[in-house]
């Protein structure tokens, strides 16, 4: 994996944050690169559970 400057980043150095619904830590994924700040939930299950309550 490469960062914005083209340097290789190991998976152990990726940022992670807690899920808003369950509190479980989840790591950065390439598909979330543009909107990492808006990603709040670790899975669709947590996202749907948060909307229901």
Summarize the model shown.
With 53 residues, the chain is of the alpha+beta class. It has one helix and two strands, in the order ββα.
Number of helices: 1
End-to-end separation in angstroms reads 37 Å
Strand portion, in percent?
A: 5-15%
**Main β sheet profile:** 2 strands, antiparallel
Overall mean pLDDT stands at 86
User: In which order are the strands of the major sheet placed?
Assistant: 1-2
What's the helix-strand series? Answer: EEH
Structure class: alpha+beta
> How many domains would you count in the coordinates?
1
How does the overall form come out from the CA principal axes? elongated
Helix content: 10-25%
Radius of gyration: 13 Å
Report low-confidence residues grouped into runs of 5 or more: none
- Find the count of extended strands (DSSP E, 2+ residues): 2
Structural commentary:
It is elongated, with a radius of gyration of 13 Å. It has one domain (13-52). It is α+β, with helices and mostly antiparallel strands and 53 residues long. Strand 1 (16-18) and strand 2 (25-27) form a beta hairpin. It is 17% helix and 11% strand. A two-stranded antiparallel ribbon has the order 1-2. The chain is built from one helix and two strands, in the order ββα. The protein has one helix spanning 44-52; strands at residues 16-18, 25-27.
